[in-house]
Automatic annotation (TrEMBL):
Protein name (database record): Redox-sensing transcriptional repressor Rex
NCBIfam families assigned to the protein according to its UniProt record, in alphabetical order: PRK05472.2-3, PRK05472.2-4, PRK05472.2-5
Compartments, record wording: Cytoplasm
Known DNA-binding region: 14-53
Domain of life: Bacteria
Function: Modulates transcription in response to changes in cellular NADH/NAD(+) redox state.
Record organism: Alistipes hominis
Family: Belongs to the transcriptional regulatory Rex family.
Length: 214
């Protein structure tokens, strides 16, 4: 099991996105305080994260962007492509499939699952949609390691046992029902309402402090 904290893993993914954007602009080196500024954190935090993964470099010129991208990729990415299934191919499932496919070479949505007769048996955005009754079989056939859960919230808990039985190792749960899985299955419950409320809270705080200054 990895000893790198979850928050560091999240930040590494964010750093890599920024570094890739820099690389595309022809930027070859970046200082820790610049990377930190872009992400709204301190340079100490950036250096601590990179120390944790064993990255060191001559920092006089800043970090070599290409070298750092490769180093972070070596930590984050599996050596092989990781296959993903979408459970619930509605508005969100389809939007995520469209967004992801063709973008990340190491993460690939290979199948979707639904109960809607208009979707099952068809390809949606180039991805086959299977009935839930063949979930376990298809997970094995397509070597699916991760599922994106985008079913209605009301039935999310019904999918826990099929997910465990199929041998899934990671779940990204978009429903509003937080789910727990046994050790060995990593789950991320992503509730967009919580994230939006956090943004709204900080907007309110900023407005209140501006009002107080006037
Ligand atoms: N649409 C958004 O922007 C958004 C944003 C954040 C979170 N969510 C959450 O994501 C989930 C999906 O939202 P949506 O807007 O895509 O809904 P949707 O109704 O468009 O899609 C849900 C899909 O799940 C399928 N489904 C129903 N029962 C199923 C089962 N037992 N097994 C597998 N699939 C089943 C439906 O047939 C449908 O295709 C909801 O829980 C919602 O709260 C949606």
């Amino acid at each position: 099991m990895s000893e790198i904290p979850e928050k560091t893993i999240e930040r590494l993914s964010e750093y890599r996105r920024t570094l890739l954007a820099c690389h595309n602009q022809g930027i070859t080196h970046i200082f820790s305080h610049v990377l930190a500024g872009i992400h709204g954190i301190t340079a100490v935090q950036v250096r601590r994260d990179l120390m944790l993964i064993g990255f060191s470099s001559d920092t006089k010129k800043g970090y070599d962007v290409e070298v750092l991208i490769d180093f972070i990729s070596g930590i984050l990415d599996s050596p092989n492509v990781v296959n993903i299934g979408v459970l619930g191919m509605g508005n969100l499932g389809q939007a995520l499939t469209k967004y992801f496919n063709g973008r990340r070479s190491k993460l690939r949505i290979v199948a979707s699952f639904d109960v809607d007769g208009d979707k099952v048996g068809h390809e949606i955005d180039g991805i086959p949609c299977y009935g839930m009754e063949s979930f376990e079989e298809q997970v094995q056939k397509s070597d699916i390691k991760i599922v994106i859960l985008s079913s209605p919230t009301s039935i999310a808990s019904e999918l826990v046992v099929p997910i465990i039985n199929a041998g899934i190792k990671g779940v990204l749960n978009f429903t509003s029902m937080p789910l727990n899985f046994p050790r060995g299955i990593f789950v991320e419950n992503y509730d967009i309402t919580t994230v939006l409320e956090k943004v709204a809270y900080f907007v309110k705080e900023a407005e209140e402090s501006t009002d107080a200054q006037n």
